[in-house]
Design goal:
By secondary structure, this protein is α/β, with parallel strands linked by helices. It has two domains: about 300 residues, Metallo-dependent phosphatases (Purple Acid Phosphatase, chain A, domain 2); about 90 residues, no CATH class. The chain is about 40% helix and about 25% strand. Strands 1, 2, 5, 6, 15, 16, 17 and 18 form an eight-stranded mixed β-sheet that branches. The protein has a six-stranded mixed β-sheet with strand order 8-9-11-12-14-13. Strand 17 and strand 18 form a beta hairpin. Helix 8 crosses helix 9, helix 9 packs across helix 11 and helix 12 packs across helix 13. It is globular. It starts with a strand and ends with a helix.
């Protein structure tokens, strides 16, 4: 049997600076010559479509960003040679069911397959199966759920991560294919370091049949792990998704993953792509040294090395404090004119310290309990949902 090459790209979506190029199908101007040739040489290619393609949809009530582009921007995605897109993500339903359905119709028009969503919780298209060159390969996708993309009995939504249900489905799918690949949409954004919860999820999916698990959504490259007979990529980074105007070290590069399936298993080859003004291009340096160092550190962590565990935990904790603490505290405080006056001339770190000083230890413990405890989490979610509906 001959080899089968599949390319897995990270997040892709048109933005203001390249939207016209996408509409005109000018893939070489967006992605560069070498990336286009990589896609031409592949037997199949998949990416995560990180937004909603709609010409008529109305945005849902959610915290920004709300990501949208016209349906004809599929010209460049189709011209690049992408065969399928994952829709199990945090922006597919930014324009509700109407936007989602319009996007699915547009994908069909361009002969691009999709998976990861469905018309109801009982009708989710969680996977597609390829039967090519004597190999049967199943691609499965799942996402962390939010209020706006959760499916119900009578409403559309994404395939959400319920560990028991997902692992049962993976075990069943593996019985009927040669290889099973999971595209997981979740984890902490804008950091190179994964959490314990993500590591546990990846190991459980691998234990239940996944040969490869790829984490998207993080917008940053992370590290890799060879777990038993499975390959795990914690953080693929963006492919071509330049939503933020500021290019940080984390978001500047992404990994285009090339997987070659042969008679004796599969081989992994990573290609580093970097962000450009118009989109992305093949990184001539292909410098994976930092990625490899994190991967070695991660291997030590998995083997119980306390120093490595402390480094990962510190990096992740620092990310949580630097990225989210002030935002969370402002939300928990609600409308407070005194806060706005006090925060006006403070640096981000000073804002964080000020906001934290406005909570007693007992109040912080109560918030912690509501976030961690299943009972209080459900009660708080019910209360907040009702309050949102009353605001409308």
């Amino acid at each position: 049997m001959s080899e089968l090459k599949i390319l897995f790209a990270g997040d892709i979506f048109p933005v203001a600076k390249n939207i016209q190029l996408f509409r005109e199908g000018k893939q070489k101007e967006i992605f560069g010559e070498k990336i286009c040739k990589l896609f031409e040489s592949a037997d199949y290619s998949v990416c995560n479509l990180e937004g909603c393609l709609t010409d008529t949809g109305i945005p849902v009530a959610k915290v920004p960003p709300i990501v949208k582009a016209p349906t004809d921007t599929l010209n460049a995605i189709s011209s690049l040679g992408i065969k399928a897109v994952t829709l199990a993500n945090t922006h597919t339903f930014d324009f509700g069911t109407v936007g989602h359905n319009e996007m699915r119709d547009a994908l069909a028009k361009y002969h691009i397959d999709f998976f990861g969503t469905g018309d109801s919780i009982d009708n989710i298209k969680s996977h597609i199966t390829l039967d090519m060159k004597g190999k049967k390969i199943t691609l499965y996708t799942v996402t962390e759920l939010f209020a706006f993309n959760t499916p119900g009995k009578n409403n559309a939504g994404a395939n959400g991560y319920d560990e028991y249900a997902v692992c049962c489905e993976l075990a069943e799918l593996k019985e009927n294919c040669d290889y099973l690949i999971v595209l997981y949409h979740g984890g902490a954004e804008m950091t190179h370091y994964n959490s314990m919860a993500i590591r546990q999820r990846f190991h459980r999916m691998a234990d239940n049949g996944a040969d490869i698990v790829i984490s998207q959504h993080t917008h940053a490259t992370g590290c890799e792990e060879y777990y038993k007979n499975s390959y795990l990529l914690y953080g693929q980074g963006n492919f071509c998704f330049n939503l933020s105007k500021n290019i940080s070290e984390c978001t500047a590069t992404g990994i285009l993953l090339e997987v070659v399936f042969g008679d004796n298993g599969f081989d992994i080859k990573k290609h580093l792509v970097k962000r450009t003004e118009k989109g992305c291009e093949y990184d001539k340096k292909q410098d994976f040294s930092a990625f490899e160092e994190r991967s070695r550190l991660h291997d030590r962590l998995i083997k119980g090395d306390k120093e490595a565990e402390n480094i990962f935990q510190k990096e992740f904790s620092d990310y949580c404090m630097n990225m989210w603490s002030a935002r969370f505290m402002r939300v928990f405080r609600g409308i407070n004119p005194e806060d706005e006056k006090a925060l006006a001339d403070l640096s981000p770190k000073e804002q964080e310290n000020y906001l934290l000083s406005q909570f007693t230890k007992s109040q912080l413990l109560a918030i912690q309990m509501m976030l961690v405890n299943d009972e209080f989490n459900e009660i708080a979610l019910n209360f907040i949902t009702r309050a949102i509906n009353n605001k409308e």
